[in-house]
Amino acid sequence: MSKYFLDNRFKDIANGETAFCIFGGPSAKSIDNIEELIQNNFTVTVNNNIIDYPNVDMYFTADNLLTRTYFETEEFFVHKFLGGKLLRSQSNFRYNEDPIWITPKIDVFSKNESMIKIIGCNHFPSYNRNFTTGQTYYLDGIMFARNHENTYICIEHRDESGESYPTLTLENPSTVETYGKNPMDFISGGNISSIVFQTLRYMGFQSVIVIGYADNGTSNGYDKVTQFEWSAEEIHAMSVHSYVWKDNLKVLAGGELFDQFDLTHGSVSETDLMNKKTKEELINRLNQL
After folding, report:
1. pLDDT grade, residue 111 (50/70/90)?
2. The domain spanning residue 245 has which CATH number?
3. Which of 182, 179, 196, 237 is nearest to 62 (CA)?
4. Once rounded to an integer, what is the mean pLDDT over residues 99-110?
5. Distance CA 241, CA 98 (A)
6. H or E, element range at 80
7. Considering the chain, what is the average pLDDT of its residues?
């Protein structure tokens, strides 16, 4: 099973490359030449963005429902989760008993066979797969990886009760010290960006250029476009990303929260997004794993 893990084969494989990351915020729609940027740079996207950007080089999701939507091969059902807790030793939650039937969108990956796909998983809970909540159970992630070329899993940390604790914060130095060091035990940061940034750090990228991250406004990353409210947990994680990457975390568009919370970030120069040759070399290395 370990061949499906994001393991030491990926360690420093990027060799100082730049990653261009398209997240779900509104600034992602503000770039007119985005397809040209995708062609010329090693490009990462997340969640439902894969529909709009099927030609990216790396895709991430950690959401149970989205993972099933893009990796299942046959129609499946889920129940809408209405609230509560799914813990290791005790659970108390509500759900709608009416099933929601979903037709998978597996064809999206057929357009780009060399794409690397990363599924963020956890060891618990193992019984949320038929609910609209939580992350993918790691054994389900392995099954999806078996059925899809170039697919691997990483795992987010949970405490003994099954909670996401601790989470990334400068107030807990241990979460900074372990940042991006163990893909089988990444510390959570409240959304998919923490898995993305830590994976890219582990892979040895020198810098990341972002759009659609740290934006004010709507999010296009999940099941529908919503007004996105940043949680305290997500803002703490953002401060850690800023601290670790410093001005190598560069904002192409959007990113208003960096300035709002006085967080370090870099600006993008004209040459930062001209990486076609090194992108192709990296893709070749990844496809040989």
Report:
1. confident
2. 3.90.1480
3. 196
4. 91
5. 40
6. strand 76-86
7. 92
State both tokens at 135.
């992350």
Find the domain containing 21 and state its range: 2-71+105-287
CA distance 42 to 277: 10
Q: How confident is the model at residue 219 (pLDDT cuts 50, 70, 90)?
A: low
Cβ neighbours around 182 below 10 Å, total: 16
Q: How confident is the model at residue 218 (pLDDT cuts 50, 70, 90)?
A: low
**β partners of residue 21:** 44, 210
Q: pLDDT-based confidence at 224, cuts 50/70/90?
A: low
Give the position of tokens 């894969």.
Answer: 50
Q: Which residue has the tokens 């979460």?
A: 175
Rounded mean pLDDT, 148-172: 93
Rounded CA-CA distance 230/45 in Å is 19
Q: Is 83 a domain residue?
A: no
Residue 45 domain-assigned (yes or no): yes
Please give the sequence-ordered ranges of beta strands (E in DSSP) within 133-273, or none if there are none.
Answer: 136-137, 151-155, 207-211, 218-219, 226-227, 249-251
Other CB atoms within 10 A of residue 285 CB: 13
